[in-house]
Amino acid sequence: MLTFQRHRTVEELRALCPARGLTMNTDRYDRGGDHVVLSGQINGCAAVILFNTFNGVFWGYFGSELRGETPDFSSGNDRFDDEPWFQNLLRLFYIEKADCPISAVGGRGCEQPDCTCKDDAPGESGEVLEGGAA
1, 64, 105, 119: least buried by Cβ within 10 Å? Predict the structure, then answer.
């Protein structure tokens, strides 16, 4: 089971999206909202994903547009937890515990000067996410 330390920042996502073939639209975020919209290919299918930059929750739809119905996949649903494409989404949106220097320093905060980790002890800045639960 994948376990995560925290969700990524908008800046971190912005840097990762091009290499993953995703486009990030920050219009809502730039106007004061807390969502960004990612679009591109997921598991060989067109997909649109909304990511809440405040709480790290994501949900998405297969196809090329947002729909107001129940999402096809989300961070709060474990239906696809064992699917490689979904695990890749989890790794896109979240920092795994093993990759987070905060875990390595016993919760005293990150001591690496170039680290993008938040300078909080585990559990203080947000939920620890396990599997696909948010």
Answer: 1
